[in-house]
Design goal:
This protein is an alpha+beta fold. The chain contains 14 helices and 17 strands. The radius of gyration is 22 Å and the shape is globular.
């Protein structure tokens, strides 16, 4: 039985001042002289339509007047300045995988498309790995590993751009061992706009412009400027040792799939309950399954009603025993028993390419909702999910959900160490409702809104931080959370995403984007 991956489910469906510092990146051999003006495309140009439609969610389609395609930081700066001079509100696009219309909005008249900024190199002067903001995760994993034998603990969708992924926090299969991506973010190179409308390129690191750096460790993309490069170096190293700049991945990974191909309400409730209880009880570093990652995809989109895909470092001597123990706990008490594929060992890169979701857009429009869980869902909540998935309103094959484990090293740092405050949850939950027929949009959106509201009915229909839930994840943006029709908690949307870190983010916004040039439906607001 073919192993399926995460995106297949989701597809289915100081005073703050400082001086500018120019990064000293050596040019590639044979590089052409740097252009100072970005390539600007209009509707009559051949590539315009393709680039305009590069967003992941076909529910949203923008109508920009221009698309800038910069190939260098200088060109990116020029593109931002030209947009300002021509009165065109602009938005940056990295991988294009935003679920909401932060880029593909009628209000955005220009797109700064960063898809040409894909270089990955080591910067000797800064003692960090420099990654272009347009590189996707698959490219980052391959180039970091093949070049230096290191990696970042990012997500398992190869086509997701590092620009959006890292700025929201970023986590994946190695995060329970090595923390979130932002725990390895040393700095950003970013185009910002001052109060007089002048664009400039700035460097923000832990030492230089530290507040601007901090804002990009989970403050979300498109809030403060246009990032051109990320600088990667782990938070617990000073850069003196090249071998310790970033984590080294396992030589091999062990992986298997556990399928529940047919499920009644009771077996489904038991299966999901077992899964959530295992990870709730093994949230802290040092617990039995602290280093094991296993995402759960739910819904007939995965070819079986529910599927868990395990990922574990095969280098450890107890890998087989640990894996078998996890599987036994997962399937305990379920009849008929789930199908378990034999564990497979693969090299790190081969594993990432086999298990991760391949590059590509969503085949259908969709609505997404997410929550951080601090406690396992109750049996009654799991039954609500089952009934939703079985209802005609869900669209059957066109809807589903995913659970992604957190905890471990992610939770070992305080909530204000980075702008991403989610350091006390053990799981992320993502709901999807999608549709093939445009006429079904209203029904499908209403169905997923109803499920979400009922799941969190005791906290006003949203996952309020504290108690059983920990808010939501800005990389899975949901504009409903700022709408009082759907957020009856009285808790502001920004508390759901940023907790107590929001006021600090607003101060960074006031210093570095005083004209509110960079904004979207859930952007950081000026104080």
């Amino acid at each position: 039985m073919r192993q399926l991956s995460r995106r297949r489910l989701l597809l289915g469906a100081a005073a703050l001042g400082g001086t500018a510092i120019t990064l000293g990146f050596p040019p590639f051999a044979g590089a052409v002289p740097e252009r100072r003006t970005a390539l600007a495309l209009g509707p009559a140009d051949a590539d315009f339509r393709r680039l305009a439609g590069r967003g992941y969610n076909p529910r949203f389609r923008g109508s920009p007047e221009k698309i800038f395609l910069p190939g260098t930081p200088a060109e990116t700066t020029a593109a931002v300045q030209q947009s300002l001079d021509e009165g065109l509100r602009c938005a940056p696009r990295s991988g294009g995988h935003c679920f909401a219309n932060f880029v593909d909005s009628p209000e955005n008249r220009a797109i700064i498309d960063l898809s040409q900024l894909t270089d990955v190199r080591y910067d000797e002067g800064l003692r960090a790995y420099a990654v272009g903001a347009g590189a996707d995760l698959g490219t980052v994993y391959e180039k970091l590993f093949r070049g230096w034998g290191v990696t970042i603990p990012g997500g398992t969708c190869l086509g997701v751009g590092v620009g959006g992924h890292a700025t929201g926090g970023g986590f994946g299969a190695l995060s329970r061992t090595h923390g979130a991506v932002v725990d390895h973010l040393y700095g950003v190179e970013i185009v910002v706009v001052d109060k007089d409308g002048n664009a400039s390129l700035e460097l923000a690191t832990r030492e230089n412009n530290p507040e601007l750096w901090w804002a990009h460790t989970g403050g979300g993309g498109g809030n403060f400027g246009v990032i051109t490069r990320f600088l990667l170096r782990s938070h617990d190293t000073d850069g003196s040792s090249l071998d310790a700049l970033l984590p080294k991945p396992p030589r091999q990974m062990l992986s298997a799939s556990i399928y529940l191909p047919v499920a009644d309400e009771n077996s489904f409730t038991r299966f999901v309950g077992n899964y959530l209880n295992i990870f709730e009880q093994n949230t802290a570093s040092g617990t039995r399954f602290a280093d094991l990652f296993a995402a759960l995809n739910v819904g007939s989109l995965v070819g079986s009603f529910s599927q868990v895909t395990t990922q574990l470092a095969a280098d450890r001597p107890d890998a087989d025993a640990l894996h078998a123990e996890f599987v036994s706990a997962l399937v305990e008490g379920i009849w008929p028993p789930p199908i378990v594929t034999p564990p497979v060992r693969r090299s790190f890169l081969d594993h990432m390419n086999q298990v991760s979701t391949p590059r590509g857009p969503a085949p259908r429009p969709g609505a997404y909702k997410a929550a951080f869980l601090r406690k396992a869902l109750s049996p009654d909540q799991i039954r609500l999910i089952y009934r939703y998935l079985m209802s005609p309103q869900s669209g059957g094959m066109e809807s589903g959900m995913e659970f992604v484990p957190m905890g471990g090293a992610i939770n070992s740092r305080p909530s204000d160490a980075t702008a991403m405050p989610a350091r006390d949850s053990f799981m992320t939950m993502v709901l999807l409702g999608s549709w093939s027929n445009p006429a079904a949009e209203g029904e499908r959106v209403q169905a997923i809104r109803s499920l979400y509201s009922n799941l969190f009915a005791t906290t006003g229909g949203v996952p309020v931080p504290g108690g059983a839930t920990g808010g939501s994840y800005i990389n899975y943006p949901d504009p409903d959370l700022r709408d009082p029709r759907y957020n009856g908690s009285g808790v502001p949307w920004h508390t759901l995403y940023y907790g107590a870190n929001y006021q600090r983010l607003q101060q960074v916004k006031a210093r570095w984007d005083p004209g509110n040039v960079f904004r979207h439906g859930l952007s950081i607001e000026l104080p």
